[in-house]
Amino acid sequence: MENKKKISLIEGLLFINGDEGVSLEEVSIFLDISIDESEELIVLIQNKYKKDLECGLELQRFAKNKFRMITKKENSEYYIKLANLKTESRLSSASIEVLSIIAYKGPVTKADVENIRGVNCDNIFYKLKLRNLISEVGKSNDVGKPTLYNVTTEFLKYFNLNSLEELPKLKESNISDKEIFNRG
Fold it and tell me: TM spans, by residue (predicted)?
């Protein structure tokens, strides 16, 4: 397989994994190549985005050995404007569903929320973070140390709450979380 195809596949993998990022080991397994070759391809991608002044994305290394796509820092003032515009629009029912799960069960991982809802929540998490309604509050002790999320003070402002204690109490039920949010 040519490097162009491998780079294309890695970019797709980075997009799919979003903020969770991708490790060199995962790239190595995904493409069935060595760790060294994985790192060489990642460096090529980093340089590609760094040189492309028309592209608003770059590759960020974090947690020593993981990589994720992020927006270029020099454009941040524009994204802040977008965040302000977004907060003025209404939340979708799916966003409210995700916020409810995080508010009642937080801190919680995205995978936990997706397990309860039974659907991928990447886009919703992205939008809720952009609107500053949820934030990363740490790492879980589970395998892979996934990010934990909780609602923010902006969430409290948005729903006119003083604290999470003011959320309506859930009734005791024998129905599982999955059954509550199951759309099937």
Answer: none
Tokens coding 176: 């599982």
What CATH number is given for 3-76 in this structure?
1.10.10.10
* Amino acid type, 99: L
- The answer to whether 91 and 43 have CB atoms below 8 angstroms apart is no
Query: Hey, where are the domains in the chain?
Result: 3-76, 93-166
Its pTM stands at 0.50
Contact 10, 41 (CB under 8 A): yes
Q: How far apart are CA 85 and CA 138, in angstroms?
A: 28
The 10s digit of each residue's pLDDT in 31-88 is 999 999 999 999 999 999 999 999 999 998 887 788 999 989 888 888 877 766 655 5
Q: How far apart are CA 54 and CA 50, in angstroms?
A: 10
**Which CATH number describes the domain made up of 93-166?**
1.10.10.10
